[in-house]
Amino acid sequence: MNAEPQQEPGFLLRGLAAWGAIWIAAFELVGGLAWLLRDVAGWVGASLVGRARIGRAAMVTQMVRVGVRSIAIVMLVSACIGVILALQMAPPLREFGQVDKTANIIGVAVFRELGPLIAAIVLTGFAGAAIAAEIGTMVVGEEIEALEAQALDPIRFLVVPRVIATIASLVVLTVIGDLTSVIAGGAMGVWFLDVPYSVYRDNTLQQLAASDFLTGLIKAAAFGGILGSIACYNGLRVTGGAEGVGRATTSTVVQTIVTVVLADLLFTALFYALGWG
User: Fold this and answer.
1) pLDDT band at 198 (very low <50, low <70, confident <90, very high)
2) What is the pTM of this model?
């Protein structure tokens, strides 16, 4: 007696299963990051009260790898963004005789939003994947188990220096990116849009406030923490050898970009509610 062929699940069921898998993965990521950041905060707090020491040499090394080597590419991308904003905003503003207001738009857009966001995205591809691959390779090579066998906490010696380095580096890179975008946009305005330099400078200084600069730095610090923690989290979860390392690097880039954009939305809404933007 022939068995009836098993029918394929319908499109709706497959869609619900995929949607459920996405939510499960999101909750797993949030829970894992919460535990990881709890341990990181514990070690940082212990170092502040003198009960533990965080390797300064390790932090400096990571800052060089993560931050210093990213300066050139962040400046290049930021300069291009400044020029693009100037060229895109000039035509509609010219219709109202307000081309000089290009400086106001570039300043607000870059210092509040684009500066930290661009730096975070660039740093994700430049350093986030490298951190995940490095720690993942240590897991595959059983170096993490060797640390634990010597009673050395991997969170303290591997994760904490990298998270602190990404936070500090992203804050500094955001400042560099902000200045580069504004200067590049100003150069475009002076050379091609016939906006006097003094007008561009005065409009920029008049438009920007301390809150614009501070909100951007707050976002940068948060984005740096997100980047470093997600990269370390995926690296520590590597299984399956070299293939697992590849999956960890891909997951780090995707998860970090999505999480940073969502965090940017939340911060923007919060600052708007508080009257800071």
Assistant:
1) confident
2) 0.89
